[in-house]
Every structure is written in C-alpha cells, then in structure tokens.
Design a protein that fits this description.
348 residues; alpha/beta; Quinone Oxidoreductase, Chain A, domain 1; Rossmann fold; 2 domains; seven-stranded mixed β-sheet; six-stranded parallel β-sheet; 14 helices; 31% helix; globular; Zn_alcohol_dh; NAD(P)-bd_dom_sf; Sorbitol dehydrogenase; zinc; ER
C-alpha cells in the first residue's frame, strides 16, 4: 500500500509498505480521505517525529475486524464508514475522570498505524473502543475529515468559557480560525471579530459570519479593535498563530475580566514575558487548548451533521496521495487556501 512519509520538512516521499496485520481486537480501514493539519506544517513540531507517515485526520471504511470482535457486542461492522482519532484515552484514570484526556498516559501513547495518509490504516483496540465514530450514511467522507479539527475548536471554545453576549476576537483566520468563526455563536458569542493579513481569509471570515475583520497589514490592530468595541476590547481572544508575539497581542487585546486562549504552541526557542500585575489587577484569564478528547469529537460530529461546519465551506483544495507534498506546501504557505485534503479513490 502507498503511504506519504516525511523525513524532513523538505523531504516527503510516497512509499510502498505492507498492509498492517490486525490483532484480535483491532480493525482495518480502507482510507477514503485525510486532511492535512496546519500543525503538521510547523517544521519544529513535525520534524521531531520524523520519519513519520503524515496525517491524523483520516476517515474510511472498515474492511476487516479482529477475530475476537465477532464474539463481542461491538458497535462496528465491516462496511461501516468511520472517523478515527489518532489518540484515544483510557477513560479510567484521574485525568480522564476530570475530562483532561490529553494528559492521559494512554492518550499520549496511542496512535493509528502507520498514519493518516495511507491507503489502509490499522485502528488499535483502544482507539477503536474509545474514540472511533461511525459516520452517518448521509455524511460525506470529506465532511468526516473535519471531525478532528472541529473537535479541537470545540474544546477551545469550551475552555474560553464564553458568556452569552460576549465579543470574541479570533487572531489568525486559517482553517482553524474560520472554524472558530463558524462555531462562536453556537457557544454564545454575540460579536465576532477576525484578524489576519490575507485578504482571501478576511473575506472568508465575513462570509462565514464574522461581524468585522481587521487587516493587520493595513490597520493598527489595537486601535481598530478599540473602535469596534467602544474601547472595551474583546471578552474572549483566540490566539491562533504559533508565536509568542501573537500571544502578547492577544493579551493586549483582551478586556478586563476576559479570557485569552492559546490555541497553538509557540516556537520552542521563544519565551513569553508577562507583567503579572497587568494580568492580576485586570483579572485576565490565560488558558491553553491542546488537541481534543472523545467528548469533543462527538460534539464536532453533531455540528458537522447540522451543516454548521462542512467541507463545502472549508475544503479549498483536493489532492491524490501522489500529490501529498504539493498539498503540504500549499498548507504551509498559508495564503489563498483553507483546508487541503488527500483523497483515495471513490469518496462517496
């Protein structure tokens, strides 16, 4: 079977490897589509995993179930359309009981084999039981690829603790920023403001329901935000770009009593300097939002089923597996594109 393997940021190869042999409690899917995550085009983040088969947003059709599953009341059958999360928690530890799934040791050590951009994928027992979802028959595989990234946004907006009527500012309007725009009102936001420097993405945010956008290449970011909020600033700020300077801007942009969400990590050589009294006397909350858990993927599936988040809105480019490097480069460029997906044969 073909896989797309990254050896370095500038070296992505299409290789042939054997189809994985499943265990008694595992499943094998024939991959139908897989999204390319914006996190996978951060060189420092992805290269530490190399060599690695790219992709962690796959959907596919179950073509084989482990022999033991036929003797148990498994919800899955050969032929099912499924989404599989690349990590799955144990659901029993202290972290899982608190809903902090990403801190679960099992979550951190589970994976799909060999990766998402692969013609076939082995779903290990834990992933199959604890974070694999059957897709509705009416849902396209393209829509299914959006479950994992949508779930990350669901978690982000939950952690933001939006209050009814809040103003939310979303810094960075790539595909994850656009998903925040699409979902913010579902969590209670009244006014949605987006900020970016790419006109294509600013226009998309307005199309998807943002009330205002700020072109940071042409306008003073803070002054414009003051104008849009009557000097109040934003109750909630989502910081998308992976930089400490963007995080600093997010702190400057939040209103007293508000919350700043760091949605993406900073580069490893950066440090964030904070005046603790500035934070303290303004009662500013700083929270992080890393990946997602099973509760979030289930909620994401519902939002996609309702048509709030769809591939029709967000998928701008489609590629065959042989074109993975081209898709990867387009995603890394972060210009006139949103979501790139890799397709495998018939998508329906």
């Amino acid at each position: 079977m073909k896989v797309a393997k990254l050896y370095s940021f500038s070296d992505i190869r299409i290789e042939d490897i054997p189809v994985p042999q499943i265990g008694s409690y595992d499943a094998l899917i024939k991959t139908k589509a897989c999204g390319i995550c914006s996190g996978d085009v951060m060189p420092w983040y992805i290269e530490k995993k190399a060599p690695v088969v790219l992709g962690h947003e796959p959907v596919g059709e179950i073509v084989e179930l482990g022999s033991a599953l036929y003797h148990y009341n498994t919800p899955f059958s050969v032929g099912d359309k499924v989404f599989v999360h690349h990590h799955a928690p144990c659901l029993n530890c202290k972290y899982c009981n608190r809903g902090d799934y990403v801190q679960c040791n099992t979550w951190q050590n589970t994976k799909i084999i060999p990766g998402g951009i692969s013609e076939y994928i082995l779903i290990p027992e834990t992933n199959l039981k604890n974070d694999t979802l059957k897709l509705p028959e009416t849902m396209s595989y393209e829509d299914g690829t959006l479950i994992e990234p949508t779930a990350c946004v669901v978690k982000s907006l939950k952690r933001a603790s939006i209050k009814e009527g809040d103003t939310i500012l979303i810094i960075g309007l790539g595909v994850m920023g656009q998903m925040h725009v699409l979902l913010a009102r579902e969590f209670g936001a009244k006014k949605i403001i987006g900020a970016d420097m790419i006109q294509f993405r600013l226009n998309k945010a307005l199309e998807f329901g943002a009330d205002h956008v700020i072109d940071i290449s042409k306008e003073n970011f803070i002054d414009r935000l003051k104008d849009l909020t009557n000097n109040f600033m934003a109750d909630i700020v989502i910081v998308g770009p992976n930089s400490a300077s963007a995080m600093q801007q997010g702190i400057k942009a939040v209103a007293s009593g508000g919350t700043v969400v760091f949605f993406t990590p900073a580069r490893p050589d950066e440090m964030l300097t904070i005046d603790p009294n500035y934070i303290y006397f303004r009662d500013i909350n700083i929270v992080t939002s890393y990946s997602c858990g099973p509760d979030d993927t289930k909620k994401a599936l519902r939002f996609i089923s309702k048509g709030i988040v769809t591939a029709g809105k967000l998928v701008t480019h489609r590629f065959a597996i042989e074109e993975t490097e081209k898709a990867y480069r387009l995603t890394a460029k972060a210009k006139d594109s949103l979501k790139c997906i890799i397709e495998f044969g018939d998508r329906q």
